[in-house]
Amino acid sequence: MASGIMDKVAILSMGCSRFGERWDIGQEELMREAYAEALTRAGIEASAIGAAWYSSHYDDIGAGKSGVPMAMALGLPDIGVTRVENFCAGGTEAFRGAVFAVASGSVDIALAMGVEKLKDTGFAGLPTATRGTLAPMYLPTHTNPGNFAQLARAYEAVHGIARQDLKRAMAHTSMKSHANAVRNDKAHLRKPITIEQALQAPLVADPLGLFDCCPVSDGAACALVTTPEIARALGQAEPVLVKAVQIVASTGWEAQQQGWNGAYVHTTRQAAKAAYAEAGIADPRQISLTELHDCFSITELVTLEDLGLAEPGTGWRAMLDGRFDADGAQPCQIDGGLKCFGHPVGASGLRMLYEGWLQLTGQAGARQLGAPHSALTHNLGGAPAQNVCSVTILGL
Amino acid sequence: MANIIRIGSCLPRLRLERRAMAQAMGWLVPGAGAGRGTRTLAFWDEDSVTLAVAAAQEALGGDSADSLTFATTTPPFAEPQNAALIRAALRLPALCRTQDATGTPRATLLALQAALEGGEPALIAAADRPVAQAGSTAESRMGDGGAAVLTGPGAGLFAYLGGASLSAPFLHRTRASGAETALDWEERWQREAGYQAQVPPAIAAALDRAGVAAGAVDHLILPCPIPGTAAAIARLSGLTKATLAGDLAETTGDTGAAHPLLMLAAAMPRIAPGQIVVLAQFGQGATALVLKAGAGVVDHPGLPALDHGIPESNYLKLLAFQERLDWDRGLRGRFIVQEAQSTAYRNAEALLGFVARREAETGLIRFPPRLDLPGEDWPLADRGGTVATATADRLAHSRHPPNCYGLVDLRGGGRLMMDFTDPGAADLAPGDPVRFVFRVKDIDETSGYRRYFWKAVRDTGRGL
After folding, report:
1. Which of A217, B96, B171, B184 has the fewest Cβ atoms surrounding its Cβ within 10 A?
2. Would you list the domain boundaries of chain A?
């Protein structure tokens, strides 16, 4: 019987580049920006790192596939670098690899890095992705706004939510994240918006308007993980511990059979259930803060329910009530989230963990919450009907 | 000898108003938009192959055929054989003699004559989506459409009594291989030295072989875009009591290879059992076939699609749909259709025939089928389904934005993310019934390569 990952691995340090339209630098420089911060905060030499994991989704655009681009960019000390890709959950996938390596006893310190250089693609929004040889022959030409607009339409239909109510709840979701990001000097978008602005934005995929969609960004984030004992030996009296890491990939059931009603994300529910069991959490509403995958405002509303932070069909109302605002009972996206911190795909999972780590160690500056004891991060890669979902829980 | 068992047809929904053509191009070409009424306009994902498939589905009515001829002057592919794709889409047996017949719209009646005289169950699927110079009379007169006929030994709509074809090096229209538009020679010469000189001898020879007197012919079906010419030919041929079939000029326009069959379908409500019909066509000679209506004609619906068009007043859609407008597609429109032909062939039954698999162990219906699991073929093309989720996506590339798609619950089990097509696709919502149509999936801008797949359209219950 597996005993799970709880309390076996600590976060020694993290780093994160400034996100945004980084016309000034490339993928290698982005990685070095995040890596330098992590090394400095950890107070270790690069030679202490025993293995590394590297996440990048559009890597053929940035630096080239394989682990070599990262080994070269960072000048790593002749160690194994494993390149991973798992849609928007890639950053968490890299983190999981590093965590497992430490937990196995193979290495003392492991590095997980996620990076994306999206603004060199020329696209507004994510570039057109390759989907193998067979899928393009039958699947529609789709975009993520189109995929998640279906989630919104199903959500309002299944729960009988009026369009104007849903639009206002989605607008509040984005307004809240914009407000939070004003206090984050690494965020991509740092301008507050009003609900009316969001409501009046042009449609991208009905009912999702421009402000319901997160931007795509350049950015990198990384983690150095180690054992709790080594973390303490390096001076961390109360290190941030990994309580759970769970990843679930769709089996095709939702997209190929008729049981799924389209108004929730099956993998999120499964990953959350497994993570809560692994971390021994009976009531997820006790978690101090959440960083979830708000690629679209509707994703945030539905995910709040799938994570058990709101009852199914009520997340939109709780959002309007301010429960997930910075001063609400369960602050969500305190760093601005994907919506405003930005979304460099392969880095986003590590960016969320970065915020969780900052908050739990009291280093979040102007946006520091009181005394958080736990943080949950969630990634959703792909479409509501077919995706990879990760849920990670950190705690003291 | 065989008989005509069934006739099928397919008209695009859009009807481009000639008035709009005149408004758009009349300042430049005085004769633009010549004629009255409308012409059919194929949607961006309809071409001669898809129109032929839709018409052939109706003509087959669940029956099979030993051979398939695709008659067209506008085949999407110079290579490969287009009929091979049509056969696969129709799921006719692999033991089927397929061929493309091209070069003249008369290819349809040439193939039909051969089929009727050959005796075997044969399918002739005819369709055209012609292209003419912007503002030309030809552009205004032409239309897009498909029609098909199933022949065989059984009793059907018409008994074949006899026919004749003559050939002439009469080059009233020329278009070199690879050229987009044709050059038409003077209309008066076409009428007098062409139609009026070549069609009557073909009719005479056909009637002679059929043993039917000219005065006994009840209906003449002869596509001819030059006004008054068909009547002149009836007179010249001694068809004293024959009714001229309507030429559909003010609704569909001249649909080329499909037109004799579309005119015949439209004329069906006026054809009574026992009547004699001459079906004729012109082009580098002429073909005439003499038919005798059977009892089945009274049940034929005619051409109901004529009454279910959608008026279109934007001439630019014709240029955009025919890929003749260098419009700003954005980065998302610049993608290469790099077909992995080995993948496509391995999955041809699924992709072209639209066949899922019902897995033996679980009973689940899955598309695409898992080729390594035992189970039974589960054809989807005629099943239809219900929209489960839907979106109208303004970011995704589309030749008719927004790009509409969603999950479709397949009748009988299984689910698939599908494109929604045709005007009005954005209105499809969860719970709406849909049926499936064979359409162009993607077109490669640089090579012209196109792939086909099935899409969902609103099921109105009329089969239109």
Report:
1. B171
2. 10-124+218-241, 144-214+242-395
